[in-house]
């Protein structure tokens, strides 16, 4: 009976694994087959023109780049700083547990709720208007738990003996943190940053309420202060509002490629720093 039970459970686990892989491969193949033939140089390097019925996604690509950079510049120092304080400086363990629980709760909130809150706070209360800056701040709040918790877990992997050895040599608390602790957990920080970039690039619900969906080509400063559509928002607009499914699948293929690159980069960075730490 035990042997039969083991064979049945092994078969079920193999079936679940095969089904999961099949679903992932089907989605990737379907998007690529429908989208890659519609990707062209003109689509990637031109702006949309409603007079000539020309479709281009260059403004959407630049808006995605602007909002990723702005969100990372805000969330990275906040998340890393909060993680360092909670791990290295905070003495009240109950307060740390409450903050960690709040961060885990925030990471599970649907993105559309972040969009509503961002619209009320950044767009209306702080008078940013519908702009990429409001969208970037909303996404920074959304990704703050990811960066903070990833950095925390990486900080906890540093052996306590490293800290004690540095203290024994006469180093102060901050010197120990930035010369001993942080260099040893840089892999976790970079991994959290890359994963946040992937989530920012794939977000659409929150940006519909805060960043808008204008297809206008702007510079960095002007772009952050004005409305603009990212690639995911443009995908929604072209598919849902305009019925341009060929363009929507082309954008989906581009986003899929970028997501795969980001995931591979995260794995590569993590492995590289683990080898460097163990060397």
Care to describe what's here?
With 279 residues, this protein is mostly helical. The chain has helices spanning 2-35, 41-45, 58-89, 93-107, 111-125, 132-156, 160-168, 173-184, 186-201, 205-210, 220-224, 231-241, 245-278. Helix 4 (93-107) packs across helix 6 (132-156) and helix 9 (186-201) runs antiparallel to helix 13. The longest helix has 34 residues, at 2-35. It is globular and about 70 Å long. The relative contact order is 0.14.
Quickly describe the structure.
The protein is mainly α and 279 residues long. It has 13 helices and no strands.
User: Which band does the percent of strand residues land in?
Assistant: under 5%
Fraction of residues in H or I helices: over 70%
Specify the structural class.
mainly alpha
- The radius of gyration computed from the alpha-carbon positions, rounded to a whole number of angstroms, is 23 Å
Largest sheet: none
Number of helices: 13
What is the averaged pLDDT score? 86
- N- and C-termini, Cα separation: 48 Å
For the secondary structure, the number of strands is: 0
Shape: globular
Secondary-structure element series: HHHHHHHHHHHHH
Low-confidence blocks of residues: none
Topology readout:
Blueprint: H1 2-35, H2 41-45, H3 58-89, H4 93-107, H5 111-125, H6 132-156, H7 160-168, H8 173-184, H9 186-201, H10 205-210, H11 220-224, H12 231-241, H13 245-278
Helix pairs in contact: 1-13, 3-6, 3-9, 4-6, 5-6, 6-9, 7-8, 9-13, 12-13
């Amino acid at each position: 009976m035990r042997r039969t039970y083991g064979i049945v459970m092994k078969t079920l686990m193999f079936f679940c694994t095969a089904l999961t892989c099949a679903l992932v491969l089907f989605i990737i193949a379907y998007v690529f087959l429908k989208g890659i033939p519609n990707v062209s140089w003109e689509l990637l390097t031109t702006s949309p023109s409603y007079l000539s019925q020309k479709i281009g996604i260059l403004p959407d690509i630049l808006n995605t780049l602007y909002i990723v950079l702005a969100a990372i510049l805000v969330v990275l120092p906040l998340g890393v700083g909060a993680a360092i304080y909670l791990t290295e400086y905070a003495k009240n363990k109950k307060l740390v547990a409450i903050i960690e629980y709040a961060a885990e709760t925030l990471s599970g909130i649907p993105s559309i709720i972040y969009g509503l809150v961002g619209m009320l706070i950044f767009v209306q209360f702080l008078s940013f208007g519908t702009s990429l800056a409001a969208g970037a701040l909303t996404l920074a709040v959304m990704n703050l738990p990811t960066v903070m918790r990833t950095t925390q877990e990486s900080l906890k992997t540093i052996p306590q003996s490293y800290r004690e050895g540095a203290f024994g040599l006469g180093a102060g608390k901050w010197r120990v943190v930035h010369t001993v602790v942080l260099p040893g957990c840089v892999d976790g920080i970079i991994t959290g940053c890359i994963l946040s970039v992937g989530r920012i690039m794939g977000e659409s619900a929150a940006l519909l309420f805060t960043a808008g969906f204008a297809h206008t080509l702007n510079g960095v400063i002007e772009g952050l202060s004005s409305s603009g559509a990212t690639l995911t928002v443009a995908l929604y607009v072209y598919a849902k509002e305009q019925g341009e499914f060929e363009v929507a699948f082309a954008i989906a293929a581009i986003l899929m490629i970028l997501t795969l690159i980001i995931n591979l980069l995260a794995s590569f960075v993590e492995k590289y720093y683990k080898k460097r730490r163990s060397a």
